[in-house]
Amino acid sequence: MILKNIYKMVRDSGEFPARIRARHKIFWSDPLAEDVRNDKMDKMDPLEKWMDVPNWQRKLSNKFNAREFAKMQGCQVPDLYWKGRDIDSIDFSSLPAQYVIRPTIGHSANLVYLMKNGLNLFDNKTYTPDEIKQDLKKAINNVSHLEFLFEEFVQTEAGEYTIPNDYKFLCFRGVIASIAVIDRVSPKLGYSRFYNENWQKMKKIHFKYPGKEELQPPLCFNEMLSHAKKLSKAYGIFVRLDFFATNKGPVFGEFTPTPSIGKGFTPYGKKLLLAYWDKYCPGLI
Question: What's the Cα-to-Cα distance from 60 to each of 37, 47, 70, 178, 258, rounded to whole Å?
Fold first, then answer.
């Protein structure tokens, strides 16, 4: 265990992880951080309102605000069926057989349900509406700002309802350093590949998932790439952007400002991302 901990400390050392940790501390140690994150925004709000506080990007760590900002920038997002904290008001009978539940606050797919005919594909367990309500109420009672989004379960380009591949763009003010494609089996398990914006294979950027055979780009890749560059430029600092390739084209998922809090990046990944940061976001948080 001691050797394992030493290995992780060495693996996660370096300037790039340090910058991510520093950003995380600045973002979330602020006493007003949760007020900023949960300031409810609308796609019709002017940019001045979005950017009216220091480190305004924290607003986009609220997944509802992220939807609105992405829509404002011309991206598709999943249809929204319901949003709020009053869990008893959810009419499950009005939902389609396939839907997704996401918390507005959170990470690592915690409290995410990919429901298909009563089965949550993320944990392979069946849930009744009452069981889901009980779980969501418990979470809401523990977190004052938390809301839940009931959204469209987007289909793959082949029209299937399955756990979709994640296309994760590591971006610096409109410039793409790498695209991680995660073939997800569950919230914690999956396979990874890494490409540049020309869909040329890259060396491994992150250790989390093992590699797998190479993929062809999705049919909507060029459109997805264009959206990623536009969103990244609007975001203004380093960010990871998540997209899905669907039968309706690229659909935006979320913004991740501190991926893995800097942990798990390969030596190559740390060197690459630091070089992009210094070139395209010099002096920025």
Answer: 7, 13, 9, 21, 12
